[in-house]
Amino acid sequence: MVEAAAFWDKTAEKYAKAPIKDMAAYEATLARVRAHLTPETEALEIGCGTGTTALKLAGAAKYITASDISAEMIAIAQGKAASEGVLNVDFLKATLDDHPFTEEQFGAVMAFNLLHLIEDIEGALRRVHGLLKPGGLFISKTACLGDRMVLFRLLLPVMQAFGRAPYVRFFKTAELDGMIEAAGFELIETGYYPEKARARFVVARKR
Ligand SMILES: C[S@@+](CC[C@H](N)C(=O)[O-])C[C@H]1O[C@@H](n2cnc3c(N)ncnc32)[C@H](O)[C@@H]1O
What is d(CA 77, CA 90) in angstroms, rounded to the nearest whole number? Predict the structure, then answer.
């Protein structure tokens, strides 16, 4: 399987051009995220991709540090920030294992369409917990592919062998919720946007 950074670097340009599949659901998600941010929130986004979401949320927070494992994704995001004139979003290449952040730096850590791409989700959630101030929020939307996707599961190893798919972890909604709680969070909001989707939206507070 191709290493994650290499896979996403290769994918970045195509990813940037792909239209958002369900704009109403995307806007509904953004609205729920904004409801948990304030003009004082110092936020971190992990796995920010080409930066669309961080730039859209910029007006709802004091600043957003938006990070990604892929230098190509970050380069595209930086170009968008410059052309949109957004000054309170910084993009940088970083992961939860290799970053310049300090413990308890952020009031919110956000991860959209990311957790299912990480092998050690439990470790990642512990690191997120450490980066949050007391009472800080973890806001996530991620695909829970554990109960269905039988054909995809069969095809995935073949696609991965040819460098056509990244690492994907399969888990059910209850397992995801359990992992978040076990890392020291209390779930304060969950949802689906759109309702029929398997992408679980979670807002969790650091205990
Ligand atoms: C499916 S894209 C989602 C991008 C963006 N959050 C969105 O919702 O459109 C996944 C992103 O996570 C990044 N990524 C994958 N594994 C990562 C890791 N371990 N740490 C940080 N970023 C990672 C990829 O480079 C990619 O930009």
Answer: 9
Q: What is the pLDDT along the chain (207 residues), one digit of tens a residue?
A: 679 999 999 999 999 999 999 999 999 999 999 999 999 999 999 999 999 999 999 999 999 999 999 999 999 999 999 999 999 999 999 999 999 999 999 999 999 999 999 999 999 999 999 999 999 999 999 999 986 778 888 899 999 999 999 999 999 999 999 999 999 999 999 999 988 877 999 999 999
Look up the CATH superfamily of 4-206: Vaccinia Virus protein VP39 (3.40.50.150)
Which is it for the CA torsion 33, 124, 102, 205, positive or negative? positive
List the chain domain ranges. 4-206
Q: Give the strand pairing for 132-143 and 199-206.
A: antiparallel
Looking from the CA of residue 124, the nearest atom of ligand 1 is: 19
Q: Which residues line ligand 1 (CB under 6 A)?
A: 4, 8, 46-49, 53, 68-70, 73, 95, 112-114, 117-118
Overall pTM surpassing 0.90 (yes/no) = yes
